[in-house]
Structure formats: structure tokens, C-alpha cells
Amino acid sequence: DWTTTNVVEESIAAIREQVGSKRAVCGLSGGVDSAVAAALVQRAIGSQLTCVYVDHGLMRKGESEQVEKDFVAATGVQLKVVDAEEQFLEALAGVSDPEQKRKIIGREFIRVFEQAAAEIVAEAGEHGESVEFLVQGTLYPDVVESGGGTGTANIKSHHNVGGLPEDLEFQLVEPLRRLFKDEVRMVGAELGLPDEIVHRQPFPGPGLGIRIVGEVTKERLDLLREADAIARQELTAAGLDRDIWQCPVVLLADVRSVGVQGDGRTYGHPIVLRPVSSEDAMTADWSRLPYDVLARISTRITNEVADVNRVVLDVTSKPPGTIEWE
Ligand code: XMP
């Protein structure tokens, strides 16, 4: 019978059986699925697991710390953090096209992750061990969507890390393959993960990179991070986190409008709030947030974020709009 405790115990037994005394790597994205998968595998095989977190500099305020401190504190997992902000920003320099940005971020991510995995493989090899498994947070709906296949992942090494095989082949460990999202959250809670991780709202892999309409720069990211943190604080304070699906905050970096602030005229950028309600992100409606909450967010963002002199609300459903702006 289905209880969270049974699911955890059975998964742990299955992971131990599959991995034996070999080693495994797992990429953490900051999202619920990879966090719960990693926590389960950590429970099962302990220090035979190493997690990799690629900090691409496109995360929201406090999110990298959440992985680096809170997740590690809750699980005791061995974590390799790669600070790749400069690499991502360089690759994104001068690029405004949304699809280009997505391609570049995806490509750099794979490069950085592969390099890190290759280093872990090399270090394990020095100790006479082998890394043969890659942990992934695949859920049941993903399995159904992709036709149910399972097996191996082939990681091509683009980098000449001394003495490594050209292609690293991993077998997949997918402990969440039979679970739905709400069950994954229950398992995460059972494993002692913090609420902020277990109940995290969806956030796109390319991060804030696709929430800046225009070129992505460090200054613009810092500005958006501040505005986004304010919106999240106020939504949380108002108890609205579980009423909305997510609330992208978007910087229109290529748009300026005239304002008046303090003693003078300003010529700043607009911030867009995009609160949506949804069941599965395939369709969505714009959330009717209370006016007083919207007012607080607007006042704080225009007061506290330099260069932003206007806050606008997106009142488009999906379709025709997508949830993200890019
Ligand atoms: P759209 O904008 O297509 O978004 O309506 C639907 C849902 O997917 C999220 N999203 C992504 N998630 N990688 C992700 O992991 C991505 O590249 C990506 N793009 C959009 C979005 O936040 C929303 O929840």
C-alpha cells in the first residue's frame, strides 16, 4: 500500500541494489525534482554520491545559497559547486534573441556539467573507484511523455581532461520514475528537506536569462534579482504562494519611459509582473491578485530598485500569451 514511508524505503532498497558499491553523480538545478532525487540517493548510498551544482549567475536572489547551504545541511550530501557566471555572461554578451539565449544557456550548461562530472570521475579513479551512474529526477509524467524508455546517458567530453575516456557513459538512476509531482513533494518532506525546496514554484532552467527582454548583463541581472526578490517577499507575506502557480518578474531592458521621482525627471525601465494560476502550465490564467498586494509590490520596486520607474501587470491568459516572456 502507498505510504510515503514505504515509497522511501522501497526506493532506497532499489537504489542500493542498482548501484552496489559504485559511485554516482547528480546535477542539482535548484528545482524540486533533482533535489528529492538526490536526497533519496544520498539516503541510500551516502558518500558514494557527489552532486554538481552549476551556478550560471542567472538564479534568483538567495537560490544558490539555498542549494549550497540549506540542501547540504538537510542531506549531508557531497556537493561540487561550479561558479560559471562569467562563462555564461560572456557567452550571452550581445544576444537578445530568446531562442538564441536558450540555446546558448543550454549549451554552456552541458559543457560545465560534463567538465565537472569528468573531474569527479577522474578523482574517483585515483582512488580505484568508478563512477557509473547518473541520477536524474525524471517523474512519471516525463516517462509517459517520452515513451517510457530508460537506460543510459552518453556524455561526450568536449574537454581534454587528462586521461579520461572521450565518451563517459552512465547508467541512469531515476528514483522518481513512478511518482507524480505531489508525491515527490511528500517524499521530499519525509526526507527532511526544507519547505522552501519542497514547495518551490516552477522556475525555468534558463533562469533570469529569459526574463530580461533584451541583452543579458550583470547589471540588469542584479536589478531584476532585486525586483524579483521584492515581489516574492510580498507574495509570501500575503500568504499567496500556494494560490498562484508562479509569478515571473520581467525586466523590459530595451524599453524606457519617463517618470518623476524625488526632485526630478527620470527615464527608466519598466518591470512586468506576470502572476498566473494554472494546473499544469499548458494553459494558464492571470491571477487576480489583491490590489493592496500589487500596490505594495509596485511601491517597493520603484522605491528600492534603481533605474526602475514603472511597474506593469500582465493580464494575458495562456493562450495566447506564454507564461514566460521569452
Ligand atoms: P511557458 O512560458 O512555455 O512556460 O508558458 C510553461 C512552464 O514552463 C516553464 N519553463 C521552463 N522550465 N526550462 C524549464 O525547466 C525551460 O527552458 C522553461 N521555459 C519555460 C515556465 O516557467 C512555466 O512554468
Automatic annotation (TrEMBL):
Entry keyword Transmembrane: no
E.C. numbers: 6.3.5.2
Catalysed reaction, written as an equation: XMP + L-glutamine + ATP + H2O = GMP + L-glutamate + AMP + diphosphate + 2 H(+)
Pathway where it operates: Purine metabolism; GMP biosynthesis; GMP from XMP (L-Gln route): step 1/1
Domain GMPS ATP-PPase stretches: 2-200
Assigned keywords, A-Z: ATP-binding, Glutamine amidotransferase, GMP biosynthesis, Ligase, Nucleotide-binding, Purine biosynthesis
Keyword Oxidoreductase set for record: no
Source superkingdom: Bacteria
Annotated positions binding ATP: 29-35
Quaternary structure note: Homodimer.
Function: Catalyzes the synthesis of GMP from XMP.
Name of the molecule in the record: GMP synthase [glutamine-hydrolyzing]
Species the sequence originates in: Streptomyces thermolineatus
Residues included from the entire protein: 202 to 527 of 527
